[in-house]
Design goal:
The chain is of the alpha+beta class. The chain has one domain: predicted glycosyltransferase like domains (Thrombin, subunit H), CATH 2.40.10.220. It is built from 3 helices and 6 strands. The chain starts with a helix and ends with a helix.
């Protein structure tokens, strides 16, 4: 077979990736390239089974967030991030540098919802 077959498979593979929503575990590598926005959003972060506490979200994308907070939450901890006007977004902590944490959303945020949030809270 010539190179046309490989091109067709690549195009079909790309079409499937673009039309079928992926769970976070499969989409994370692709979404690391998703645009991230510098924001300043007073929010609530609630660890699973505990009371929520105030945080400032400083970075937001369709796949996750970063916020300024001093907490002992460990990588892999399940939590819920409540942004103004939205219900809690189930998340998982992916890093903690003892001055902030980063989390990945269990379900990617809809791009239209993200655009609305960013339009209101963007700093950069």
């Amino acid at each position: 077979m010539g190179t046309g077959h490989g091109i067709r498979e690549a195009v079909l593979g790309r079409m499937i990736r673009q039309t079928v929503p992926l769970p976070y575990a499969l989409a994370a590598d692709e979404d690391r390239c998703a645009q991230r926005y510098e924001v300043y959003i007073p929010s609530i972060l609630r660890p699973s089974g505990e009371a929520g506490f105030k945080v400032i979200v400083t970075n937001l994308s369709v796949a996750g967030f970063a916020c300024d907070v001093v907490t002992g939450m460990r990588e892999g901890a399940r939590c819920w991030l409540t942004l103004p006007g939205l219900s809690g977004l189930q998340s998982e902590i992916v890093w903690n540098n003892h001055g902030g944490v980063g989390g990945s959303f269990s379900n990617l945020i809809n791009e239209a919802v993200l655009a609305t949030i960013v339009a209101r809270y963007r700093t950069g």
